[in-house]
C-alpha cells in the first residue's frame, strides 16, 4: 500500500489528495484519510484500490499523455456498468464519474470494491476438474446474459453505431493499427487484406458486446463457480455477439503460461475444461441458436483486433505513456503471433 505522503510519482501520477477531496464531495459517507495502491498488470486504463477507514473502493482513470481517438473511454465503462446494475450480468456498483480533467489530469470513475477470486490462467491451476467445468459453463452463462441484455430497457440503444459491426470494427482497428504502427509486419498486412475482403454481410444480430471477454476479466466467488463481477468494459459497444465468443476461442488457442494464457496442447478433458465445440454448443443452447457458420472468420477477426490493441500498447510504451512500459514492450512483441493465428483461422496460415 502506498501512503499519500509518498506523492504522485509513487502512484503513477495519481493525485491522492485531490481524489480524496473529490470523493468526499461526490460520494456520501466517505471519510479520510485516503490511501491508495496501484493494481499491477493493467496496460490500458490504470486502476487503483482506494482505502478509507471504513471502505475500499476502486478507481479507474485514463492514462496520462496523448491518446488515440476514442481509446481509454472510462466514461463508457462507467455508463455501461451503471446501466447493467440489477441485471443478470454481475457488475460492481458504480459510485461516481469525474469528467473534469482538472481534478487529476484525466477522466476517472470510482466503483465499489468487489471481493472474489481471479484466474490469470485459463488452466485454473489448483481447481478440481468438476469445478473447472462449472466455472467454464458459468462463463458461457454470463456471456449469453450480456448478449441477451434488453438495450432499450437499459438505456443503451445509442451505445454504439449498431449495424455492420465487423465492417466498422475492421475499419476502426485498421486505423488504430496504422496510427500506432512502429514497423512493417507482413502477416498483419495479409490479415487486414483478408478480413477486408471477407467481412460478412450484416445478419441483423445486434447486442451488447463486452469486447474483451476472458477469464482474467471475470471475478468469481470465493467458493463455488458463480461469477460476481465482469470487469474491464473499455471495448464494449453495441455489436455482433459472435465476436465475444470467438475471442475466447482465439485466446485458448494460444500457448499456455502467464505470457500467453492459452490452452494450446492442454489435455482439456483430463482437466475438466470443455472443448471448443462444446463451449460453442453451450453458448448456442443458452442463446437459442442451432449453430454458427464460418466461425473461422470471427476467430481471425479477434486475432487481428488483439494484435492491433497490443500494437497500441507497444506504441504507448515507446512514447512513455504506458501504465507499465516494460510490460508494454513485451506485449507488443506478440503482435506477429496474433497475426499468424488470424491467418491460420482464416485458412491461410
TrEMBL record:
Organismal lineage: Bacteria, Pseudomonadati, Pseudomonadota, Alphaproteobacteria, Hyphomicrobiales
Protein name as it appears in the record: Aminoglycoside phosphotransferase
Signal peptide per UniProt: none
Pfam families reported for this sequence: APH (PF01636)
UniProt xrefs under PANTHER family: AMINOGLYCOSIDE PHOSPHOTRANSFERASE DOMAIN-CONTAINING PROTEIN, HYDROLASE, PUTATIVE (AFU_ORTHOLOGUE AFUA_1G12880)-RELATED
Domain Aminoglycoside phosphotransferase stretches: 37-261
Amino acid at each position: 500500500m502506498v501512503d499519500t505522503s509518498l506523492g504522485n510519482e509513487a502512484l503513477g501520477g495519481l493525485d491522492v489528495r485531490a481524489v480524496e477531496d473529490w470523493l468526499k464531495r461526490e460520494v456520501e459517507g466517505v471519510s479520510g484519510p485516503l490511501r491508495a495502491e496501484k493494481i499491477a498488470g493493467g496496460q490500458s486504463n490504470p486502476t487503483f484500490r482506494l482505502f478509507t477507514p471504513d471502505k475500499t473502493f476502486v478507481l479507474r482513470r485514463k492514462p496520462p499523455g496523448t491518446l488515440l481517438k476514442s481509446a481509454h473511454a472510462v466514461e463508457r465503462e462507467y455508463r455501461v456498468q451503471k446501466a447493467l446494475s440489477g441485471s443478470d450480468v454481475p457488475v460492481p456498483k458504480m459510485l461516481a464519474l469525474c469528467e473534469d480533467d482538472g481534478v487529476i489530469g484525466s477522466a476517472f470513475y470510482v466503483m465499489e470494491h468487489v471481493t472474489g477470486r481471479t484466474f490469470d490462467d485459463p488452466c485454473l491451476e489448483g481447481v478440481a476438474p468438476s469445478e473447472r467445468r462449472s466455472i467454464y459453463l458459468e462463463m458461457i452463462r454470463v456471456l449469453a446474459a450480456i448478449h441477451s441484455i434488453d438495450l432499450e430497457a437499459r438505456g443503451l440503444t445509442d451505445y454504439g453505431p449498431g449495424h455492420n459491426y465487423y465492417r466498422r470494427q475492421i475499419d476502426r482497428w485498421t486505423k488504430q493499427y496504422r496510427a500506432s504502427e512502429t514497423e512493417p509486419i507482413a502477416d498483419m498486412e495479409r490479415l487486414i487484406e483478408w478480413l477486408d475482403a471477407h467481412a460478412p454481410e450484416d445478419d441483423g444480430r445486434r447486442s451488447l458486446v463486452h469486447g474483451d471477454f476472458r477469464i482474467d476479466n471475470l471475478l468469481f466467488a470465493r467458493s463455488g463457480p458463480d461469477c460476481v463481477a465482469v470487469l474491464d468494459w473499455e471495448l464494449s459497444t453495441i455489436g455482433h455477439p459472435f465476436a465475444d465468443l470467438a475471442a475466447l476461442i482465439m485466446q485458448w488457442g494460444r500457448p499456455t503460461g502467464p505470457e500467453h494464457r492459452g490452452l494450446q496442447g492442454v489435455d482439456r478433458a483430463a482437466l475438466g475444461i470443455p472443448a471448443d465445440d462444446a463451449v460453442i454448443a453451450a453458448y448456442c443452447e443458452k442463446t437459442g441458436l442451432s449453430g454458427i457458420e464460418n466461425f473461422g472468420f470471427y476467430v481471425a477477426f479477434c486475432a487481428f483486433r488483439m494484435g492491433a490493441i497490443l500494437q497500441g500498447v507497444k506504441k504507448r510504451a515507446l512514447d512513455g505513456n504506458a501504465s507499465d512500459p516494460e510490460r508494454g514492450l513485451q506485449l507488443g512483441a506478440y503482435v506477429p503471433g496474433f497475426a499468424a493465428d488470424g491467418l491460420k483461422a482464416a485458412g491461410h496460415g
